């Protein structure tokens, strides 16, 4: 089983990133080519959602 994080960007697109153990949030964003300001933030769901597949 793998852990993924789904980022919803401000332009409406979504990025699904496979998580790597020990990787920081900043490293994850850098690997995904996402800037923190591009992530859509909302009070009910927070910045990201984690799904298990």
Write up what this structure looks like.
There is one protein chain. The chain has 53 residues and is an alpha+beta fold. 15% of the residues lie in helices and 30% in strands. The chain contains one helix and three strands, in the order ββαβ. The protein has a three-stranded antiparallel beta sheet, with no helix packed on it. It is flat, with a radius of gyration of 11 Å. It starts with a strand and ends with a strand.
Topology as a string of helices (H) and strands (E): EEHE
Name the strands of the widest sheet in spatial order.
Answer: 2-1-3
Put simply, the count of helices is 1
Average pLDDT figure: 77
Biggest β-sheet, characterized? 3 strands, antiparallel
Output the keywords.
flat, 1 helix, alpha+beta, 3-stranded antiparallel sheet, 53 residues, 30% strand
Detail the topology: elements first, then pairings.
Blueprint: E1 3-8, E2 14-18, H1 25-32, E3 48-52
Antiparallel strand pairs: 1-2, 1-3
Summary, kept brief:
With 53 residues, the protein is α+β, with helices and mostly antiparallel strands. The protein is 15% helix and 30% strand.
């Amino acid at each position: 089983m793998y852990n993924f994080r789904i980022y919803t960007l401000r332009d409406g697109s979504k990025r699904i990133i496979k998580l790597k153990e020990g990787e920081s949030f900043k490293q994850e964003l850098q690997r995904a080519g996402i800037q923190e300001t591009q992530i859509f933030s909302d009070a009910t769901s927070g910045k990201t959602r984690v799904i298990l597949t």
